[in-house]
Amino acid sequence: MKTNRRNFFQTMGAGAAGFGLATTLPLTSCAVPAESATAEDDEQILFIGDDIAIADTAYGKVKGFILRGITQFRGISYGADTSGKNRFMPPQKPEPWNDIKPTVWWGNTAPQLMDGRYANAYSSFVDHWNYDDVSEDCLKLNVWTPALDGNKRPVLVWLHGGGYTNGNGIEQDGYMGENLSRKGDVVFVSINHRLGPIGFSDLSGVGGEKYKDSGNVGALDMVAALEWVNENIANFGGDPGNVTIMGQSGGGAKVCTVAAMPAAKGLIHKAVPLSGSTTQGMDQAYAQKLGEYVLKEAGLKPSEIDKLQEIPWKEYILIANKASQKMREEQGGSGLMRMGFAPVADGVNIPKGTFYSEAGGVSSDVPMLLCTTFHEWGMARTNPEIEEITADEAKEMMKASAGFRAGFGDKASAIYDAYAKVFPDAKPIEIMTLASSNRQSVVASATAKLNQPAPVYVAWFGWEPPMFNGRMRAFHCSDICFWFYNTDLMLTHTGGGARPRKLSEKMSDALLSFMKTGNPNCETLPEWPQFSAENGEVMILNDVCEAKNDPDKEARELL
């Protein structure tokens, strides 16, 4: 479906001016020039009032607003306050209300350490972080819908990034659902949920039956949000029988985890992990031992474990982080365990072993589309001097460090040469970044999903923005706004304009097709084959898009 260019530009500019973004986005680059404005352009675009945008939920009525024809609700409660006696407990239903509740502003961000969040000026500029109040009353969601009617539109539920410790549903401007909702006639939902030690402290080993779910309450929050969608989204013009979950980075791993949870069976129908995936939960023995360390760091006996619910959330996070550090020093750990607090394979909420192992298991009928970027990890954006490193210098650096991972050691030289063979025109800095950003995890996840009959599709995003003298490359997070048709909104990731918009047109078309049919093929892209273990089919997403058979296989196998 094509979108009128002038209307698209209006969407970008007016949205920023209407809701507090005018001071941070250069509107002249994305709004209709004043000299070309017509009477039609000057019509009212924001509507809010006593009888506008009112919807029913199972707990009471909510009131939002209409902006450029898309009805929005911000900060709807899908669960009760998680503080006090509800801390470490599975999410509870929200208390019903009698009045019409105003839902016109974002819900609280989940507890996380905010100190120094904006300390790096360039990172704050590029990612344009959106943070507001932080509290344990954070089980909130946002809805964008074309209409409050009886139509059954496909629904997308966005699980934000930030590992399992940071982030929120509107962390970046590219997360906004308005443009995709309008373009594809779909309902877009984004959620907040518990994170870090508040969401994933496994106290079952020291707290017994009462705390049996404590290691997974953050994951259970996501299921509770999906239950809310299943119960209520029809009142917002959505189809509870066609729900796609999508997330990036830590959100991608969340998508894989939720898709493997028995409690989510029947609540999701398609899954899209971006630049993050997983095929297993944290080992419970390790997680329970970490719970022991937490209790000890807090100076409490097992009989006093309930006192952990009374400690202020920031103090508790600091205690838990110290405990995690001590445990790593004394016990070691790698992978998920190195993260400290993450979903736990308890065999009840999250299965033990490899996800998707059973052909007829959870999500066996759920198609999956996975994507990563060429340069997930990069260090040259604000370090121009590293652009000119030699191949030998790059190999030496790769021995000790490989971006998000440990270094490649003695294999560094062979790995570098293998990637240089696949990408003969790449500079040494680019070869190093490609190897460090390798697709090993996404290919493993896609291969695991092949155990089930639903189709699997894989993409690789290589589009590079023309900013920072070309040093940004196809970095971690850069593809999100393309999928959501927000390239002229997330200007600090794209620069805006026709070039990124053309690719966004194609990628959003593919996403909408996948949401509706479970197949991303669309008129604007070449034929997108299903992924297979034999051929490793992948769609390269760039100014020119093309499907290839596992182009980096030889290099990746050296990893």
Structural overview:
- The protein has 18 helices and 19 strands.
- The protein is an alpha/beta fold.
- The strands form four sheets. It has a twelve-stranded mixed β-sheet with strand order 1-4-5-7-9-8-10-11-14-17-18-19, sandwiched between helices. A three-stranded mixed β-sheet has the order 2-3-6, with no helix packed on it. Strands 12-13 form a two-stranded parallel sheet.
- Helix 8 crosses helix 9 (313-331) and helix 12 packs across helix 13.
- The longest helix is centred in the last third of the chain and has 20 residues, at 498-517.
Task: Supply the key terms.
globular, Rossmann fold, twelve-stranded mixed sheet, 18 helices, 559 residues, alpha/beta, disordered N terminus, single chain
Task: Give the structural class.
Answer: alpha/beta
Largest sheet: 12 strands, mixed
What's the overall geometry?
Answer: globular
CATH topology of the domain at 44-372 and 480-518: Rossmann fold
How many runs of DSSP E, i.e. beta strands?
Answer: 19
- Distance between the amino and carboxyl termini: 41 Å
**Please, what is the average pLDDT?**
91
The radius of gyration over CA amounts to 23 Å
Task: Please write out the topology.
Blueprint: H1 5-18, E1 46-47, E2 54-57, E3 60-63, E4 65-67, E5 70-77, E6 101-102, H2 121-127, E7 140-145, E8 153-159, H3 178-184, E9 187-191, H4 196-200, H5 204-207, H6 217-232, E10 238-248, H7 250-259, E11 270-274, E12 282-283, H8 284-297, H9 313-331, H10 336-339, E13 344-345, E14 368-373, H11 391-400, E15 401-402, E16 405-406, H12 412-422, H13 428-436, H14 440-449, E17 456-461, H15 480-483, H16 491-494, H17 498-517, E18 537-541, E19 546-549, H18 553-557
Parallel strand pairs: 3-6, 8-9, 8-10, 10-11, 11-14, 12-13, 14-17, 17-18
Antiparallel strand pairs: 1-4, 2-3, 4-5, 5-7, 7-9, 15-16, 18-19
Helix pairs in contact: 8-9, 11-13, 12-13
